[in-house]
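Next comes this protein:
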Amino acid sequence: MMLLDDNSLTRSSVVANSTMNRERGLLGANSYAKDLGFAPLVWLEGRRPARWLDLCCGSGRALIEAAGLCIGQGIEIVGVDLVGLFADGGDDFPHLRLIESPVGECALEGPFELITCVHGLHYLGDKLGTLAQYAALLSETGRLVGHLDLVNIQGVERRRLLALLRKHGWRYDTRRHLIEGTVQSQPLPLRYLGALDHDAPNFTGQPGVNSFYE
C-alpha cells in the first residue's frame, strides 16, 4: 500500500474540495453554529479583545458574515484554506484576514481564543498532528473545536485512540464527531505514516482522507 505524503495530498482532487464550506454560513440551517453546537461570536462576547482562527474555511462566507457583525468589537478573525476561492467581501473588513495556504504550512502566531475546523479535518493528512500544532496557539482560556471521524484514523484501535485522547487532554464527542482541546492538550504518542485519498468516506457521506499512524 503506497501512502501519500502531504505534498501529494495537496494535489488531490478530494483534498482540494471545491464545495467544502463554500455555502456554509455563520448562523441558520447550514451553518457553523449548527455544526459546532455553539455560535462563535456569542462564545467570544465575554472574551474580547479576542482572536478567532478558522481552519479549512472554504470560501470564507461564514467569516465574512461574522466580520460584518462584529465591527468595532475587538474581534480579529483569520481564515485559512488550501484553495483561495474566497467569497466577495473579504477585503471589506480590516479585522478579517483570509489566507490561501495548506493548513500545516501556515505560519501563524497566537494566542487565539477560539480555533475552529468545521469538517476540515476530513481532508487533512496528519489530522492528529495538526490538532496538536494549533492547540499550542490557544490562549490560556481558549478552545479548539473541530469535526473528526475516528473511522478515518487508521492503524490505532478505536478504544486505544479514545483512551489516548483523554489521557493527553482532548475531549471527544462521539455523537457529534467533535474533538475539543485547550492549550494544555498534548500531542499523542503516535507516528504519522501517510494517508490515502480514496475509499475514505466519513460520517457526512462525502469522500475524505484516511490517515495512518503507528
Notes: The chain has one domain: 6-213.
